Amino acid sequence: MSMKAMVLKRLCRLEEEPRPLEKTDLPVPEPGAGEVLIRVSACGVCHTELDEIEGRTPPPRLPVIPGHQVVGRVEDMGPGVTRLEHGERVGVAWIYSACGRCAHCLAGLENLCEDFRATGRDAHGGYAEYMTVPEAFAYPIPEPLSDLQAAPLLCAGAIGYRSLMLTELQDGQLLGLTGFGASAHLVLKMTRFRFPQSRVYVFARNGRERAFAMELGAAWAGDTAEPCPELLDAVIDTTPAWKPVVEALANIKPGGRLVINAIRKEAGDRDYLMKLDYPRHLWMEKEIKSVANVTRKDAVECLELAAALPLLPEVQTYALEDANLALQELKRGVIRGAKVLSIGS
User: pTM for this one?
Assistant: First the structure.
C-alpha cells in the first residue's frame, strides 16, 4: 500500500526555490516494536520547517518528511504496544523520542536528553498520509478539540505553554509577547485564562498582527522597538531575530525575566547586540532563559488546558499538496494564527 507525502530531498533557500517539497508516493511505513502507525488527518506548519529546509537546523539525513504537529488515528500497532488502542485519536509533537535512561529523562526533562530526536527532522513526520511513532510519544487528543485545532497545540501550543511556565508569572503581573505568530497568539489566550488579573502587552512589526493581538484581548500592541507603556514582569520572545531580544530587555522590571522561545537566532541582525547597554538592559538582576524543545508533560498538560478552556487556535487550512504555499506565506510573514495541512478524515 502506498501513501502520498511531501518530501524534502535537498536543502535550499525559499527565495531561490519556492517549492522545496516534492509530492511523492511512498510505501506506508510499518510500525516496529513499541510503535504505532498513525493515519494522519492534520499537521501544523511551523517556522521550524523553514529552518530545516534552509539549513539552520538541518535534518541529519535526506530525504525526510517534515511536520511535527500531527493529529490522526491509530491505524496499526507493533509488538509491545499496550497503552493505545486501534482507532484512538492521538497527536505527535516535536519530541519523537528520547533515550529514557539518562538523568534528564528520569527527571522528566526529555527535552534536554542528548539522544533527543525531533519529529519531521530526525525521523519522518506528518506531511504525509501515514507516519509511525513510539507509543510513548503519542498523546490522546481530548474533546472538544477538532483535529485542525489540536494540531497547532502540539508545538506552537506546547512550546508556548512551556515558555509561559518558565516565566514564573503570578496572577496580576504583566507579561510581554514579542512576535505574534502561532505560538504567541496561543500564549495570550492561555494567559488570559490562567492569570485573569494579568495584562498582556504585544510587540510585533506587522500591523495586522498587532490588530489581531488587540482582537484577542491584549492590553496594548506596538512595534518591536516601541517603548511599552509599563515595565513588565516577564517577556516571551518568539522571534528568530536579535533586535526583539535587546528591545524587550529595556521593557523588563528589575528582577524580571526574558524567556526566549526560539530554536535559533538569525545572524542577519547580530550587530544589533552592539546596542546592548548593561545599565539599561541587564542590570538589576534581570534574567534571560532559553526554551529547549518540549517534554511529554508539556504536550499532555497543554492539551488538557486547551480542552478545559477550551483553547481553540485560529487556523488557516491548506491541502497536503499546498504545503509549499503555506511555507512561502510563513516565510513572507503572512500569518494569522496557525497554518495547518488538512490531510484526511
Answer: 0.89
